[in-house]
């Protein structure tokens, strides 16, 4: 499923975070604080609104469900 601005906003407002998945099904959590965290890795800081963040996620292949394409 493609990442959308609406999905990111809904998840952040409801749960305080949104989770997206890499093509390798690695989960990434996006929180209200401006950073992206991958378990066991460095954080990626960003200053984007939800629309820009959705575009970024789609550009690098992040989805809202794991794809299990390993």
Tell me what you see in this structure.
The chain has a domain at 5-47. Helices cover 30% and strands 23% of the residues. The protein has 2 helices and 4 strands; from the N terminus they run αββββα. The protein has a 4-stranded antiparallel beta sheet with strand order 1-2-3-4. A hairpin with a 5-residue loop joins strand 3 and strand 4 (44-45). Helix 1 (5-15) packs across helix 2. The two termini are 17 Å apart. The mean pLDDT is 80.
Structural descriptors:
single chain; 70 residues; alpha+beta; 2 helices; 4 strands
Concise synopsis of the structure shown:
With 70 residues, the protein is α+β, with helices and mostly antiparallel strands. The protein has 2 helices and 4 strands. The chain has a domain at 5-47.
Could you give the topology of this structure?
Blueprint: H1 5-15, E1 17-21, E2 27-31, E3 35-38, E4 44-45, H2 50-59
Low-confidence stretches: none
Distance between the termini: 17 Å
Biggest sheet layout = 4 strands, antiparallel
Kindly state the mean pLDDT as a whole number?
80
User: What is the H-and-E element order?
Assistant: HEEEEH
Q: Count of helices? A: 2
Give the C-alpha Rg.
11 Å
Strand-pairing-aware structural class: alpha+beta
- Give the % helix: 25-40%
Indicate the proportion of strand residues: 15-25%
**For the largest beta sheet, what order do the strands appear in spatially?**
1-2-3-4
What is the total tally of β strands? 4
Indicate the overall shape.
Answer: globular
